[in-house]
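B., you asked whether I could sanity-check this one before it goes into the benchmark set. Here's the sequence:
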Amino acid sequence: MTKVLVSGFRGSMGTQACKMIETDPELELVAVYSPNLKTTDAADYGLPTDCKVFNQLADIQTDADVWVDFSTPTGAFENAKFALDHNMVPVIGTSGMTEAQVVELEKLAEQTNTKGLIVPNFGLSAVLLMQFAKQAAKYFPDAEIIEMHHADKKDAPSGTAINTAKMIVAGRESKGTEYPTVETLPGARGADYEGVHIHAVRLPGYVAHEEVLFGGQGEALTIRQDSFDRASFMHGLNIAIKNIQKLNGFEIGLENVL
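And here's what the prediction gave me:
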């Protein structure tokens, strides 16, 4: 039985995570955390009576094996440090951490002999898209990314899009071509990650979607994935929680536990 704490349990993803854990006989929801709660009574949130509710990081005392984080970019970093210091494996679904923060967590995991995982996207279709994009970049070094998310997503571009760009760069055998353009409106070409342009869309009605466009001489390739419901991410989260033993230190990407 793997014992789990969920941080950010009141959000859309956190709520889905709690439901998934509660219905899996191999998992146990032992605690939840969210700052500034007015009450710490599990019944007030529809949680099992034996599930502990915490509203202060320093007050957390739990025997959880895994810390699942769906909080905020600023909160997730401090939460991950707390988890590593208390012998819990952080599985972080919150995007927006800086490169420096990730490096610090990698060092802390090594010092504490603990594992951890940042997952830019729990959707299996998104994981496969990134893998396919890396392979395609070998033959199509010219690529751009369009990521589309719900209007409430704060960070742009998404962690998935940034990770996709990194994998495209890693898969290239030559640099993409630089095409001189003049932006008649600033930002028209999107963000630029080592020559891969990323365009972020935020609109109501969307959940999480991504297209990678590759262009070559006389041909083009498009890879697309769509997540229509947040429940679709729970399969990947379930896999991550149950396969933390496959991790080698602190790693990034669901593919590390598949």
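One thing to flag: The mean pLDDT is 95. Otherwise nothing jumped out at me.
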